[in-house]
Amino acid sequence: MPNHQVKKAIIPAAGFGTRLFPATKVVKKELFPIIDQDGRAKPIILAIVEEAISAGISEVAIVVQPEDIPLFSYLFKSPPKPELLCKLSSANKEYSEYLQSIGNKITILSQTEQEGYGHAVFCAKDWVNNEPFLLLLGDHVYQSDINISCAQQIIDIYAQVNHSVIGITRMSAALIHKAGCVAGVWQNQKSWLSLTEIYEKPSLEYARQHLQVEGMPTDEFLCVFGLYVLTPRIFDWLELNIQQNIRVQGEFQLTSALEQLRQAEGMTGYVVQGKCFDTGLPDAYLQTMIDFRR
Fold first, then answer.
1. Can you name the residues that pair with 274 across neighbouring β-strands?
2. CA dihedral 161, 179, 212, 203 (to 10 degrees)
3. Mean pLDDT within 197-208
4. Average pLDDT over residues 131-144
5. Residue 53 pLDDT more than 80?
6. Count of Cβ atoms closer than 10 Å to residue 211 Cβ
7. Given this model, what pLDDT does residue 2 score?
8. Structural domain boundaries in the chain
9. Alpha-carbon distance 35 to 288, whole Å?
10. HEC per residue, 223-275
11. Mean pLDDT of the chain
12. CATH number of the domain at 8-291, out of 3.60.10.10, 3.20.20.210, 3.90.550.10, 3.40.50.10490?
């Protein structure tokens, strides 16, 4: 019987942040500031963790470079120094206590070698311990268009379909070479897709031939949103790719393992009612700082 309870989340945060250099020489990109709708400045990673917790997640693993473990541990597990704490407003003192309570739900894991996104996810295999889990990108923040968080929407669909779910969004043809794209057949009055293919960064020619979805304009495709609920069998495919040294552009990627998992178990794509904001590129980060505050 499938395990419907999704209680764990993984956030890979072990990249070098080369596209935001030289700022990332001194500040990890996951720790860049963002202003939320309440006007509070917080590290990006905190906004991502809060997205997971909003969906009922009780344990969060953050995968980082070994030398960054103390940095992330300090953020979530250490109170401010007394000389700083006494200067905080009452509201910020309360928020500091809230931050420590979040820290109790967080485990810091390490990726000793930066071998790609799929490899970072694989580093959490033992921690996941054969349970379904929520996967969130470490350089994206999310904002729902309805009163249910984006992460909760994905988890709700998983509970209905009993197999892995990928959050998807509509994207113009001009941008698909930068994203993972999917094809499939609409189900449940076009509220989600039964996926028939997952493909990383397709050319427009390939997308028009293989990834067009019924009822959508010819210049629009369905691409990965950046939220997933995955069954633990994803680790079998990640491990196989690592053992056989199957790389894409020199790294072990998640997308190839997702396609293998789809073929083995089936997979659903759900068009998330919300927005995903990129913080991993200079111009995208600048725009996110404006839009996420609204």
1. 144
2. -150
3. 92
4. 96
5. yes
6. 21
7. 47
8. 8-291
9. 9
10. EEEEEEEECCCHHHHHHHHHHCCCCECCECCHHHHHHHHHHHHCCEEEECCEE
11. 93
12. 3.90.550.10
Residue appearing with tokens 């959490």: 124
- Distant-in-sequence, close-in-space partners of 5: CB < 8 Å, separation ≥ 6: 131, 132
pTM of the model: 0.94
Q: How far apart are CA 20 and CA 14, in angstroms?
A: 14
Q: Token pair for residue 14?
A: 């072990």
Helices and strands per DSSP (H, E), number in the chain: 11, 13
Q: Mean per-residue pLDDT for 247-252?
A: 84
Query: What pLDDT shows up at residue 4?
Result: 65
Residue 179 clears pLDDT 90, i.e. is over it: no
Q: Treating both helix axes as pointing N-terminal to C-terminal, what angle do 69-77 and 90-103 enclose, rounded to 10 degrees?
A: 120
Task: Count Cβ atoms below 10 Å from residue 108 Cβ, excluding itself.
Answer: 21
Q: What is the percent of the chain where pLDDT is above 70?
A: 99
